[in-house]
Write a structure and sequence with these properties.
Layout: H1 7-11, H2 15-38, H3 45-66
Length: 78
């Protein structure tokens, strides 16, 4: 999963992509927690970063659900 996803980058993604990214982030978080429990985790900061990515994805999904922000499609100017 890409590091440093911003809310702006997530807002231009479609719903299926968001669900996929959420699944990947949750899998990564599980693996990081497992490594932490077994004493193999080298970067504890990555735990925090992945939790924040998950929160951002949930925030964008909720914004769409409430109609606060709509999906912006990029127009091709020719």
């Amino acid at each position: 999963m890409a590091k440093g996803l911003t809310a702006g980058e997530l807002r231009v993604e479609d719903q299926d992509t968001l669900v996929t990214k959420l699944k990947e982030a949750k899998e990564e978080l599980f693996n990081l927690r497992f490594q932490a429990a077994t004493g193999q985790l080298e970067s504890h900061g990555r735990l925090r970063a992945v939790r924040r990515e998950i929160a951002r994805i949930y925030t964008v999904m909720r914004e769409r659900e409430l109609g606060i922000v709509t999906v912006e499609k990029e127009s091709i100017d020719g």
